[in-house]
Amino acid sequence: MSKSPATPEPRTFPGEWHVRYNYPVGDVGAHFFDALKEKRIVATRCSASDMTYLPPRAYCERSFEKCDGYVDAGMEGTIEAATIVSAAFDNLPTPPYAIAYVRLDGVSTAMVNFVRGMDLSDVPAAAAKLQPGTRVRVEFIDAPQGRITDFHYVLAAA
User: Fold this and answer.
1) Is 63 left (phi over 0), alpha (psi -120 to 50) or beta?
2) Of the candidates 91, 14, 107, which has an alpha carbon nearest to the alpha carbon of residue 56?
3) Which residues have CB under 8 Å from 126's CB, separation 6+?
4) Where do the ChsH2 C-terminal OB-fold domain residues begin and end (predicted)?
């Protein structure tokens, strides 16, 4: 009787991919990024469903119709979800840093961005301030360039 061979451990080889690319933003994205240069945040609107989308979308996920208008989002909103990042990732700030999905006033959906101006040295205490329902406001940098990093959120009470 022959003994079956032991199953070998899977072999792996370390590797990394570094890919640079240019992302086409299209007409809807271009409208959004151009508005950021003016310190405005615009959402798309679907008149068929009365939904407003941020980040803007070309088509409505409810009616499947083309979004047919733009609306200015409010400069304040409500946190729907948030986290404090403690692990380092390439091309992102040195941790810790906070990010939140925020539904800006007048918009049906939430958009993620950094939350700045918080003391993150005590992560549990900071996380308690980022609970769903917490109000935040938008703050723009002095000279916007038409990038998502032109603005961030800060606690409205701050």
Assistant:
1) alpha
2) 107
3) 84, 96, 98, 118, 119, 120
4) 70-140
Segment 104-149, tens digit of pLDDT: 999 999 999 999 999 999 999 999 999 999 999 999 999 999 999 9
Q: Specify the amino acid at residue 10.
A: P
Residue 126 in 3-state DSSP? helix
Q: What is the token pair recorded at 116?
A: 């700045």
The predicted-structure confidence for 40-64, as pLDDT tens digits, reads as follows: 999 999 999 999 999 999 999 999 9
Domain residues of the chain, as ranges?
A: 26-155
The residue to which tokens 């998502």 are assigned: 148
Instruction: Reduce the DSSP state of residue 16 to 3 states and report it.
Output: coil
Which among 103, 97, 43, 49 is positioned nearest to 77, based on CA atoms?
A: 103
CA distances (Å), 6 to each of 3, 9, 11, 13, 105, in order? 9, 9, 15, 21, 62
Token pair, residue 135, equals 């109000």
Fill in the amino acid letter for 2. Answer: S
Q: How many residues does the chain have?
A: 158
Site of tokens 């403690």: 86
